[in-house]
């Protein structure tokens, strides 16, 4: 492949034509420019696993000062909103079944009496656990509040308990680096940018060549003296530029709208994404070589994107996956870009830190584009 | 290049598995000739043509187009030929000028050359007013004429036309053929497939393919005489029915 | 009627002849449900932690052993200087560092209190809090072991019951969601594309001038997808039952009827999209961006609606999938019937009716 002046000129002519076509399609322009903004905005707000405003209903069979005190602890907590009092277990269960409340706290009669007399008392909690992860977190909140209440009572009832002096305690202080406020958006926005760059470059490049096939212009291209590599580079370069543009666009939205930090050098992100986009352009091109209609191309592309996203660590951590699934993620380019963009933006990682990912993605790029080029034939 | 032969084909064959689509055809086309390539659907016309324009590899036989071998020099062939098919129109979402600029650019023409050629055909067709309209907004007849003009932008030695007048009205077809004549007078070789038998009469020589073989090849006049009929249509029917 | 059946046959041929799309149509649900079921989970496992043990004494070593014995954590490395923390976080493998203060054991025996600092990489806030919780639990257990002889008075015991999903499996959450997505995808996206395709290649006009009534043309196009959707729903349910042990508390009949209602509403949406888009590309993009993303993100499928900002919560109400997911979870997991789900059903029914009327109107306008 010589990159002589003439060669470059031919490529440039194709690039020009592609850009003209992209900017002329009125339906595609909003998809390229407006949809990403909306997605970053909505996704960043919607995609959160934080559990807030848990709806809690209670059944107070004791109606003592202690039981009221405990309920008021839930009332003032920012994690809970009270849905009201239920008079019977049946009523409480109904409320959960109808989805009107998430948690039912039931305080038995004799709650206060048992606590004072028997020095031990019980209460029961029922949690709608269909969303298992949320239920776990809710349980944590509840335990925390009850424990706090318990400690307070203990202090009130026996301020100078000699035995307490001998209790050995291991105290721990958590500290949250890189994201002290545990803001979920800081975590999600970089990942969403990666998804946007991936989807737009992959879908558009995949559909683009099939489209020329469908309308018959590809055959025309094949009888011109245009070289294979000129055609491929010329077709893909516009989408590469588009991908880089969306990346910068997204990163700026992230920084200025969501205060996502940029601790590391954007140069490393640019370097990584330049190669990363090539992987998906190659893949889009590869798919278009094996499909005859845009519909087929889109379905196949969509199929892979769904798997790539689910296995990328975007929503759920890769370490949580079973070993076989973790092995699969090693072949997922999206995973590496999400890792890199989070490392560089949020932790300030440098070239040395992202080297393993950079090497892997480069291998992907070479292999994918090699496959794409050899599968594209001008003759039959 | 060997004397005046634009295309020379000898025993050219293409097989798909057991099926022989093109069965050892041989013919020659002179420079500046209008060569009609006729046959029913499925007779092998398109396959034969694809081998000549370098997008399909022959199974056996030999062929030269514009002096270049179809096995070794497909890229050189592509530089020297023009191609237009019924299916191919220009890019609908580009204007006439943009299409011309694109194709001219692909063939390595300079901006100045492209501009000159574009202006030439725009004046010739008298379409200065629509030169900056999107091709998609033009009627089919215009698209075909424009596609032909654009396929000539790099002044090819041979032009391949694959059913170029499909679906257009008789008047436009007439105009289209006038453009073809003019081009042939300038020394361009025209290789045209068609299934309009009246168009076959316009050709200098005509070949008729049946089931992968060339069954007849001569001037329209001679063919009519040979088969004792008064139209190409009748010649064709006689041959096709065997 | 005969003509109509012939037309439906033609549609089936189209679909079944396109092997690649068919593969996606059936492969996608299976792949998704398996991925969600096995691979996509929030539970943490084998999180890599590093230890900075300034004490290096009996107690700290015992604690470290306890942590490495837990299935949640894996000790990746020991570090000997606080400056190393920054660099290992930057490499991204290690998610937390435990720092033991010097004289850990001595402080514990003499002063009854010893300190550990847990530094987490909180770029992933969820994992960070979970790590803190889990380590906290391990420390608590260890501490309870140290104080075995001391009985704490005045104890409030909470007996917690996890309803409907005692093992807190995430599959229970995802199966109804994946089912909704697949039905949406097959019904709305596929129909909108297949109708626009006929428009694009010009065969729609031929169909419309044929003796078939316009309504028959549309019904004929839609019918195969109802069929495919139902097959998909059944496949997903079977996988859910047999592979992931999804319960089926409620009635099959109700589940089937509600699913058909949802499929019809999705088909109506698909027809609606096809009336407003001229090319397959446009139909595809509208379906993807306008239907699929909201369904995935705002229907409560993955992310709890209650945690979203108010505006998005309100928006989630106008998505049919939100209601269908509530119904699915109700029937499958809670075992409730129409007596409780009548409100959701009514809303879904109203939406369906609205989409059908709207698409008929739009379609008529297009014909004129």
What is the CA–CA distance across the termini of chain A?
22 Å
Radius of gyration of chain A: 29 Å
**How much helical structure, as a percent, in the residues of chain A?**
55-70%
Radius of gyration of chain C: 28 Å
Quaternary organisation of the protein chains: heterotrimer
Distance between the termini of chain C: 25 Å
Enumerate the spans of chain A where pLDDT stays under 50 for 5 or more consecutive residues. none
Major β-sheet annotation of chain C: 4 strands, mixed
Sequence of strands across the biggest β-sheet of chain A: 2-1-3-4
Number of domains of chain A: 2
User: What is the overall silhouette of chain C?
Assistant: elongated
Order of helices and strands of chain A: HHEHEHEHEHEHHHHHHHH
- State the shape of chain A: elongated
SSE order of chain C, one letter for each helix or strand:
HHEHEHEHEHEHHHHHHHH
| Sheet/helix structural class of chain A | alpha/beta
The total strand number of chain A stands at 5
What does this 3D model show about the protein?
The complex is a heterotrimer of chains A (380), B (242) and C (368). Chain A has 380 residues and is an alpha/beta fold. Chain A folds into two domains: 8-48 and 181-375, no CATH class; 54-151, 3-Layer(aba) Sandwich (abc type-2 transporter like fold). Chain A has helices spanning 5-24, 28-46, 65-76, 89-97, 111-117, 132-157, 184-215, 217-222, 228-258, 266-289, 294-310, 323-329, 333-347, 351-375; strands at 54-60, 80-85, 103-107, 120-128, 169-177. In chain A, strands 2-1-3-4 form a four-stranded mixed beta sheet, sandwiched between helices. Chain A is elongated, with a radius of gyration of 29 Å. Chain B has helices at 45-52, 74-80, 96-106, 111-125, 140-151, 170-185, 197-200, 220-227, 232-240; strands spanning 5-16, 19-30, 34-39, 60-65, 68-69, 81-85, 158-162, 189-193, 205-210, 213-218. In chain B, strand 4 and strand 5 form a beta hairpin. In chain B, helix 3 packs across helix 4. The mean pLDDT of chain B is 87. In chain C, strand 1 (47-53), helix 3 and strand 2 (73-78) form a beta-alpha-beta unit. Chain C is α/β, with parallel strands linked by helices. A four-stranded mixed beta sheet of chain C has the order 2-1-3-4. In chain C, 44% of the residues are buried. Chain C has helices spanning 2-17, 19-39, 58-69, 83-91, 104-110, 125-146, 171-200, 203-209, 214-244, 252-276, 280-298, 310-316, 320-334, 338-367; strands spanning 47-53, 73-78, 96-100, 113-121, 155-163. The chains are: A alpha/beta (380), B alpha/beta (242), C alpha/beta (368). At the A-C interface, helix 2, strand 4, helix 6, strand 5 and helix 7 of A face helix 2, helix 4, strand 4, helix 6 and strand 5 of C.
